[in-house]
Specification:
The chain is an alpha/beta fold. Helix content is 45%, strand content 15%. The protein has a 7-stranded parallel β-sheet with strand order 3-2-1-4-5-6-7, sandwiched between helices.
Length: 255
């Protein structure tokens, strides 16, 4: 990414990325590290975290944690702050998915998706707010979805969770803006990840429909999400808060 004046540089920043070892999380981590940030990857699987950090090089570290263990969020953040002094960027990326008809989705399943996306993200966000507001700088980024913007069948719980992100973004942006902290979201479209591969496996007709309704054609890459995240967390977006940026090849407005 061009950086003639440092406005899209993340030099001097430290970013915590939940679910950062694979998929979109790793794409964001790679872009952040390329832009000069130190990155901390959090996830449940130690070996995947180690492998991801090895690929990223010296700018990366990791910590094992589960966003659904809400009480552990405090100790994890405290340990990371002792190790890194100040975490200036939080990317709430970790999540789960449930594809089921609404009538067959149990309350327990519905709650599980909300606990992972909404409560899990909030648990980490609220524990980083004091340090960010004290220093009067920081950027919090939520990974929303096209399900935040349009109706999609068979993903009622996921849609509810991702739509809740938009309320969090707007409310937090208004509350934290006067303290120098920005809050934004990215709404990815169909991105080439293992999750998309599983969703489209054995269904070439669906893959064709997606391409046909996407104005730019084809699927995006994790790096497309990563560079959008770099922009939103960099000085280039210093006057951007409360925004939801679709990175979807135009799919959310295509016909």
């Amino acid at each position: 990414m061009p950086d003639r004046n440092g406005v899209v540089s993340l030099e001097g920043e430290t970013a915590l990325i939940t679910g950062g070892a694979t998929g979109l999380g790793f794409g964001i981590a790679h872009a952040f590290a390329t832009a000069g940030a130190k990155v901390i990857l959090m996830g449940r699987r130690e070996e995947l975290l180690r492998q991801a950090c090895a690929r990223l090089g010296g700018a990366a570290q990791h910590i094992t944690g589960d966003v659904t263990d809400h009480e552990a969020a405090g100790p994890i953040i405290e340990a990371l702050q002792q190790r890194n002094d100040f975490i200036s960027i939080l990317v709430n990326n970790a999540g789960n998915h449930l594809k089921k008809p609404a009538a067959e989705t149990s309350e327990r399943e519905f709650q599980s998706v909300l606990n992972t996306h909404v409560v899990g993200a909030f648990a980490f966000t609220r524990r980083l707010i004091p340090a960010m507001t004290e220093r009067r700088r920081g950027s919090i980024l939520f990974l929303a979805s096209m399900a935040s913007l349009m109706g999609l069948p068979l993903v009622t719980a996921y849609s509810a969770a991702k739509s809740a992100y938009l309320g969090l973004v707007r409310s937090l942006a208004c509350e934290l803006g006067p303290h120098g902290v920005r809050v934004n979201a990215i709404a990815p479209g169909w991105i080439e990840t293992p999750m998309l591969e599983r969703a489209l496996q054995g269904d070439p007709a669906r893959a064709r429909r997606i391409r046909e309704r996407t104005p730019l054609g084809g699927f995006g890459s994790p790096e497309d999400i990563g560079w959008a995240a770099v922009y939103l967390c960099s000085p280039a977006a210093r006057f951007v808060t409360g925004a939801v940026l679709p990175v979807d090849g135009g799919a959310s407005i295509g016909f």
